[in-house]
Amino acid sequence: MIKSVRGVPKPLGPTPWQDGVNFAVYAPRASSVLLCLFDQSGHSEVARIACVKHEGGFWSIRVSPLNEGALYGFRVDGPYEPEQGLFFNVNKLLLDPYATDLHGEFTWSERHFCHMPLGTLNITDNAIDMPKSRVRWLSKYEGERPNHPWAKTLIYETHVKGATNRNLAIPEGTRGKYLALCDEAFMDHIKQLGVTAIELLPCHAFISEQFLTTKGLQNYWGYNTLSFFVPHKAYLVGQDIAEFQQMVRKLHQNNIEVIVDVVFNHTAEAGIDGPMLSFKGFDNGVYYRTVEGKPDAYINDTGCGNTINIDHPATLRLVMDSLRYWVEVMGVDGFRFDLATILGRNLGGFNPHHAFLQAIAQDPILQKSKLIAEPWDVGPGGYQLGAFTAPWREWNDKFRDTVRRFWRGDNGILPELAKRIHGSNDVFEHNLRGPLNSINFITSHDGFTLADWVSYEQKHNEANGEQNRDGHSENFSFNCGVEGFSSDPNINALRLKMQKNALLTLLISKGVPMISAGSEFGHSQGGNNNAYCQDNISSWLAWKTAQKGHALSFFIHDVLKIRRQFSLFSNPFFVHPNHPRFGVNWYTESGELMNQENWHESNRKWLICALLDKKLNQAVLIVLNAGDSLLNLTLPSCPVDATWQFAISTSNSNITLPPQANLQIEAKSSWLFTAKNEELK
């Protein structure tokens, strides 16, 4: 016989209590909250228990006997006044916002919609089509964490399923799952590259939008969150969410950190006319931003129908609790925040001292985590690159676009390229941050792959079902003479060289480098630059070439080996003239220092730069020639007490290096020379 008594309102969610469970939720304007228990199949509702209201809008109930694994949901009643933004509907089963596990699948149906049409209460019950919340408690993560400093971090951005789904060296039942990421076949590959952290596309439970499923497509990337605490269960081998912990622990044992991409800017409930799955049914105005004076109109700064109301204390608490859970319980090392500008925006616009950012800064758990912002959204004042404060890092799209334009051969790029290679001091130094606050990248999950960037000048997104209207139209890409696949060995050789040029530029620039999965073995999406709904071989990495050892994989490994040998890449501060230890010199092709006139020659498409550490007597000379013709180069005098040695190049040319060597630098090629006094090592 199930018994229930008044519970306690904190903590929210299900917590153990004697031989039962305490349930607590927040629904400040509800008239009643019902806890609904289900049998183990999740199909039959076996009990409805009224929760008790507490001050402050909290509701609770203690139920016993009840064990871990129990399935449940909530029904919340209250006023249905759409013009006031109140959509209470007791006919809709709601997921617990604090549920840590789910049971069953989500199925699209008209039963999920609160009103049908808008303004008319939809009284059909949706429980049959809803997953159920599941009582589950995991112990806190206790594994050792690598704690790599930013100066030694290389990020590998990847999708959980796409990373391993075609890797035949991994057991078939494990491919495409969390546990595949900690399989030796995958870990050995990324360790050989030099990766120190994997950044996973969304791992929070998510669903596919209805407009995709009606076209036979799925949301592959996962930016459509259903629950902020539950790991996406399609990535589990079994049904045990502890597999995520197991993955993290094994990666940590192999000295690899885990960063997860989190979506706290919108949810799968979409707009006012979207489904009622959880937050909307507990209190719409608490969780979502609405237009001032129009509570029935959502603010859509995300382009996805709704925007999380991070200004509300309950929503802020939900986000903070979720972040702490993923660090303390799941063991992750950091987060990449999708459309992070939203998390710092209040009614007056973006505020670098927003309550959320302050809460992160003072939190004893989260302040130690790696925090990465995608510093833009589609809302007003949405582009905020450089506006976040320490300890935040930011995706630097200026680096991406500048490097792409330089190697495409655009005129007048040199001054901008110098800033990006130097760590983007024009972006970050104004608020006391350094080059390591810049996450440098050439490609990411969003946009062309590295191979497609040198193979396509136009996007080819027809498979997305939107008549090729979706995705960015300007990608600063070039096709090396043929649009798409080519069997011409000369074109393919040029494409390989151009990918190496971009990777070398990325890996010798000051900042934290990030490479997108597959860049190391020429992964192509056939020109699709918005493959968010392509859960198929166009998105899944093809490991056949990788396992043979791809030229790009060897190249990344070799350049990183050089990078790690020189202290100047780990210097956390910008270097200006007359620095007592570090220096940056810019040269002309004649080996002389650049002057102002040289910088403003728009047709100058080569950059020659020396980075030096006077204390350790070491230097790196970078030569990048994006021009279409040979560059006659006189090596500049070595600025430290050593001599230049050839290190690596994207050219097939063989060279010898006498002092003051005159070299012919091949068109569209990049070179590294190093100098160091081994006696001072």
UniProtKB/TrEMBL annotation:
GO MF assignments: amylo-alpha-1,6-glucosidase activity
Family: Belongs to the glycosyl hydrolase 13 family.
Naturally occurring in which organism (per UniProt): Pseudoalteromonas xiamenensis
Domain of life according to the entry: Bacteria
GO BP, sorted A to Z: glycogen catabolic process
Domain Glycosyl hydrolase family 13 catalytic: 184-563
Protein name: Glycogen debranching protein GlgX
Gene3D superfamilies: Glycosidases, Golgi alpha-mannosidase II, Immunoglobulins
Hydrolase found in the keyword field: yes
NCBIfam families (UniProt xref): glgX_debranch
Gene: glgX
Keywords of the record: Glycosidase, Hydrolase, Plasmid
Key word Hydrolase present: yes
